[in-house]
Amino acid sequence: xxxxxxxxxxxxxxxxxxxxxxxxxxxxxxxxxxxxxxxxxxxxxxxxxxxxxxxxxxxxxxxxxxxxxxxxxxxxxxxxxxxxxxxxxxxxxxxxxxxxxxxxxxxxxxxxxxxxxxxxxxxxxxxxxxxxxxxxxxxxxxxxxxxxxxxxxxxxxxxxxxxxxxxxxxxxxxxxxxxxxxxxxxxxxxxxxxxxxxxxxxxxxxxxxxxxx
Length: 213
Fold this sequence. Notes:
This protein is of the alpha/beta class. Helices cover 45% and strands 16% of the residues. The chain has two domains: 1-34, no CATH class; 38-209, Carbonic anhydrase (Beta-carbonic Anhydrase, Chain A, 3-Layer(aba) Sandwich), CATH 3.40.1050. The protein has a five-stranded mixed β-sheet. It is globular, with a radius of gyration of 19 Å. The N and C termini lie far apart (58 Å).
């Protein structure tokens, strides 16, 4: 088997990275292997241009990460729920950030009707968000502005969907400190925007979503 230049490069990059870390701290990996205690769960998009740790200058061990197309929080997604449950109940994280990004392909696809493949079934959940906010979004004439606002609205909806989960509400009921935040990342600037949707109890939810334990 002939090793491609790209494949060889990423193996070499790993060795270089290890050497750089050990040059700064000879016990870096030894200490890292002892366990993790991150204060933050990051739920972001799978887009390769949105690296969670790098965006906020976090080191390995400081961010627990879940990523999917368009940073969705779907109540039947066992992958997301498993990550959330472990983060909240085992790691006792204090902050959850849902981070979307302008130019998101999943959000863009949800604005149209083209079939892409099996991903259509995932995109449908994003379309549901559009449907709930259609009057406002359709009132925005400029397509790019509408796209950006849809990205922001989608993040806000996912923040509220996180707050609706039994996992988060149970933590709040027991007095655990968990705050959920919504951000959007600018691919063309590198900056994040806090959307000012910050939830630390279920009091901001409609009564029908407030669980009693």
